[in-house]
Design a protein that fits this description.
Helices cover 57% and strands 1% of the residues. The chain is mostly helical.
Length: 271
């Protein structure tokens, strides 16, 4: 039995790795650069620098426990961000499912997302102008917008709390990108004001609370004995030996509540 279980586990791992290879074969060089950039801070830089393919990045994610057969969401998040949504099927996710889970399970920081968004809006001409403005402090190497931003971060010119250098560049070269930076600042400030919560635990609690629905509560309340109205109480004390109660069958009145009969003079009541 043990050997069968072990063989099944190996087959599952091989099958999972086959899916990773399929994803790798559908990614281009620019996609690999994007993956590496988004993984900065989560995977050691030295490992990322040596990665030349998506499969290399996947291997590092597996080693860092950021990716497994049982939990492949981080890779799904990466593919979603870089616009490779069609590949989510190999991880058994849909675009809608990833969008729903991002606020709960997402690992990419606001800062990393900001830099990635900016890189997608900095064209080759913008990049040349930015490099020109910082020429004295940059190495004489060919760069992409992603590698340029990564270099600024590596040189401590920018970080999540200091975007002055980037703002100055955008003011001169691409003023419209200042809106992205302002949006990032607002979202970051909101994060600081709102205390962190365990989003997965919160979602679980909400699910447990919903085990008793509003319909169930209404049905339960309707089944409870209803309080007798004052009209019924008044009627019971004045009319008939029996009274029909809204909440049950007829009940005899007690002796003190029996109605009194008044007969004409000279007439007696039959025994």
């Amino acid at each position: 039995m043990k050997s069968q279980g072990s063989s099944s586990d190996k087959n599952c791992k091989v099958s999972f790795r086959k899916k990773l290879l399929i994803i790798d074969s559908n990614l281009e060089v620019k996609d690999v650069e994007r993956l590496k950039f988004l993984c900065i801070g989560l995977v050691p830089n030295k490992k990322l620098e040596k990665s030349s393919s998506a499969s290399d990045v996947f291997e590092h994610l597996l080693a860092e426990d950021l990716l497994s057969e049982g939990d492949s969401f981080f890779l799904a998040e990466l593919l979603y961000i870089i616009g490779q949504k069609k590949l989510l099927q190999y991880l058994n996710y849909t675009k809608e499912e990833v969008e729903q889970l991002l606020p709960i399970k997402g690992k990419i920081s606001l800062f990393r997302n900001l830099l990635y968004e900016l890189s997608q809006s900095i064209d080759s001409e913008n990049l040349k102008e930015m490099i020109f403005l910082l020429n004295d402090s940059l190495p004489k190497t060919e760069m992409t917008s992603l590698s340029f931003l990564a270099l600024l971060e590596k040189q401590d010119k920018i970080d999540e709390d200091n975007l002055t250098c980037l703002e100055d560049l955008c003011k001169v070269v691409v003023p419209k990108l200042l809106r992205n930076i302002e949006k990032y600042k607002r979202e970051k400030a909101a994060q600081l004001v709102t205390p962190p919560v365990d989003k997965e635990a919160e979602l679980l609690c909400q699910g447990e609370e919903e085990l008793v629905s509003q319909t169930d509560i209404k049905t339960f309340l309707e089944a409870l004995p209803q309080e007798e109205s004052w009209q019924n109480k008044h009627a019971r004390s004045n009319v008939g030996t029996y009274v029909q109660d809204e909440s049950g069958p007829q009940r005899p009145l007690c002796h003190c509540q029996q109605p009194q009969l008044y007969l004409p003079e000279g007439q007696t009541r039959n025994p």
